[in-house]
Design a protein that fits this description.
209 residues, mainly alpha, Lysozyme, two-stranded antiparallel sheet, 7 helices, globular
Length: 209
């Protein structure tokens, strides 16, 4: 009887341990859900180690990258656009919330662009340009707000694709207004994003090579 009780107790412990393991998150990143982790962990790796404007990947603020991923995910971009915010932040500032740029547009060589996403002075009305998360949220909002006008302006079979509409909205949001729109243009950020996506695909295709 005693042996039977011991066996039951051991079985119960093993069962509880298996439950704990199955419910455990596959990562140890505070505030990041399993869903966001699965969607972005490979992109975070690319953003950390394959950003042309980062000299030392070991000094990248990975927590900031995950915060950007969470903000982007909240706007539900198409899967092929995932990482767009990371690519923009890499290209514009190398993830530096205090970056200064576009001095060539000032007669006094004053920095016109400030922050993670290099917003110009007009943006001060809406955000603190040195606040990375405010800038990121505002940047995504501006893209999403362009989507209705893209649906009206950009015609043809290409724009039946949600990805293509998002790309056009992205371009329109970050560039100056242009007569006829910018339906067929692409931002430099997108080239970097595509490079990351290709690297991820290549890594997956070659697993077990």
């Amino acid at each position: 009887m005693q042996k039977l009780c011991i066996k039951i107790a051991l079985f119960a412990l093993v069962f509880l341990a298996s439950l704990a393991t199955s419910n455990a998150a596959p990562h140890s990143i505070p505030g990041v859900s399993d869903e966001i982790y699965e969607r972005y962990y490979l992109l975070i790796d690319q953003a950390t180690y394959n950003c042309p404007n980062v000299k030392n990947p070991d000094r990248v603020n990975v927590k900031l990258l995950w915060d950007l991923a969470k903000i982007e995910n909240g706007f539900s971009p198409p899967s092929k656009m995932r990482g767009m915010l990371l690519a923009a932040a890499c290209h514009e500032s190398g993830y530096n919330p205090n970056a200064k740029g576009d001095r060539k547009f000032s007669k006094k060589r004053k920095a016109m662009a400030i922050g993670l996403l290099q917003f110009w002075p007009w943006a001060k009305k809406y955000i603190d340009r040195r606040d990375a998360l405010q800038s990121a949220e505002f940047w995504m909002q501006r893209i999403v707000r362009q989507l209705p006008s893209i649906n009206r302006q950009c015609k043809g079979w290409r724009f039946k694709s949600r990805t293509r509409r998002w790309l056009a909205a992205w371009t329109k949001a970050v560039r100056a207004p242009k007569k006829g729109g910018r339906c067929y243009e692409k931002v430099k950020h997108y080239r970097l994003l595509k490079r990351w996506h290709r690297a991820i695909k290549k890594e997956y295709d070659c697993r077990g090579c």
